[in-house]
Design brief:
With 458 residues, this protein is mainly α. Helices cover 79% and strands 0% of the residues.
């Protein structure tokens, strides 16, 4: 670490801290903390979406995957982009028309509280896996920056995420996301340019050789399903729905989803190129590919700003997802048992306490599995969320009064069970498809004709 590195990192962190202080000052009540008061503009909503979506998995994890498998590293950010486009095309308007605060409340209004409780627990488990992957990414970044151990890095990242989200809530997630996107885009563009210069371009005679076959390095079915898991995960995750609800209008929410999808792709490209370039170097761990590139192959000040951008990326990504888990727990579980925690100061206390407990749990888990492939955890996380929520949520939004409550509750269990069994028993079919099919099948078993249709026929 040189002086230029330290100045760059400090500059990026100061920008985020100033934004968080301003965010904290704008929180006047529980609605501001949960949904930003429903008054957010276009770029604040984009910041909230990208602040959670573009985390350690889309940057450090993408470079790690590209280092190991080549072009297949692009699937995470490509799937994230397609998920945003799916929000834009079909889900933004019905979500906002529901006037709810959590996805589980949308489902509960159609299919009862039992589905809400079960779905809350299972969906939160999926999100927690993603928080773990962000903490691992942050710890790897700390190790590259300071030479600290993974355990120390996990502790530091937990503290930073806690400060980030406890202070600002949904407003902070949006404003912090804007700072992050600006820094991250600068870092990605500089990294792409640096790789092209250092490698002498791409292709024949270059240090970077593109092999299209690497796009499906782990099999066509697996890579396509990895991409699909991101699409379903984006549609099934509380954090992204909160960003949509925080917008001041339908138009702003849809436009933000579209812009966020477009902005995902270049960031993934930068991570892939860095991972491919760093394959020529022997690293202690592939997860260090992006941090080492910034420190050793860019001017110190520029590399420091890039390191600061990565640090902000993993902190805001993990923090935003933690906010989503805490919102689900407080509103869909604790609030149903103790309604006083849904209003006023008690709600804020419950939210912030839940955030701290969530980060303690995920941080301890990250310390146990520090060598995991970050994006594999991301794909698993999105797949779990998708198999629990996607089918019931779609039915609740577009096919009201067509399905029995009991069938929906069963489907929310069958989906992740199918995914886990197919993975453990190594079915020939892709586990994600097994899980989604099991969820859809359970729902179809509970199909009923709407009451109006029955009355007309009688």
């Amino acid at each position: 670490m040189q002086l230029g590195h330290l100045i760059g990192i400090a500059g990026a962190l100061v920008a985020l801290i100033l934004v968080e202080i301003r965010s904290a000052a704008r929180i006047k009540n529980a609605a501001d903390f949960d949904k930003g008061g429903g008054k957010s503009g276009l770029w604040l909503v984009c910041g909230a979406l990208l602040g959670s979506l573009i985390g350690g998995q889309s940057t450090i994890g993408t470079a790690q995957l590209a280092y190991v498998y080549g072009l297949s590293g692009i699937w995470f950010t490509l799937g994230a982009a397609l998920g945003c486009f799916a929000l834009y095309i079909g889900y933004v308007i019905p979500l906002r028309k529901s006037h709810e605060t959590t996805l589980m409340e949308v489902i509960a209004n159609q299919f009862g509280r039992r589905a809400e409780y079960i779905g809350s627990i299972l969906c939160s488990t999926g999100i927690l896996v993603s928080v773990v992957s962000n903490i691992i990414a942050a710890a790897a970044l700390m190790a590259a920056m300071t030479g600290s151990t993974m355990i120390t890095g996990c502790i530091i990242s937990m503290v930073l995420m806690c400060i980030y989200v406890v202070l600002g809530g949904a407003i902070g997630a949006g404003m912090g996301g804007i700072v992050k996107v600006i820094l991250l885009y600068g870092m990605s563009l500089v990294s792409i340019a640096a790789v092209l210069i250092l490698a002498g371009g791409i292709g024949q005679g270059s240090q970077i050789q593109l092999n299209v076959g690497d796009l499906f390095a782990r099999g066509v079915g697996e890579e396509i399903c990895n991409c699909l898991s991101l699409v379903l995960g984006v549609l099934s995750t509380q954090t992204y729905a909160q960003a949509i609800w925080s917008a001041r209008s339908y138009h702003v929410a849809r436009k933000a989803a579209l812009i966020s999808g477009i902005l995902c792709i270049p960031i993934g490209l930068g991570g892939v190129l860095v991972g491919l370039y760093m394959r020529s170097e022997q690293l202690a761990s592939p997860v260090e590919a992006f941090p080492i590139f910034l420190m050793e192959h860019l001017p110190p000040l520029v590399g420091g700003l890039g390191m600061g951008a990565l640090l902000i990326t993993v902190v805001t990504g993990g923090g935003g997802l933690t906010l989503g888990v805490s919102t689900i727990f407080v509103r869909d579980i604790l609030g149903r048992i103790r309604p006083e925690y849904l209003i006023g100061r008690k709600h804020l206390i419950a939210m912030r306490s839940s955030i701290v407990m969530t980060l303690l749990l995920t941080g301890m888990t990250a310390m146990i599995i520090p060598g995991a492939i970050i994006n594999d955890l991301g794909f698993l996380s999105m797949g779990l969320r998708g198999t629990v929520i996607f089918v019931p949520l779609t039915l609740a939004l577009f096919f009201k009064n067509h399905f029995k409550e009991e069938a929906i509750t069963v489907s929310m269990v069958m989906g992740p069970v199918g995914l886990i069994l197919a993975t453990a028993l190594k079915f020939e079919a892709e586990p994600l498809l097994v899980g989604v099919f099991a969820s859809a099948f359970a729902c179809l078993m509970g199909y009923k004709r709407p009451e109006k249709e029955v009355k007309v026929k009688q």
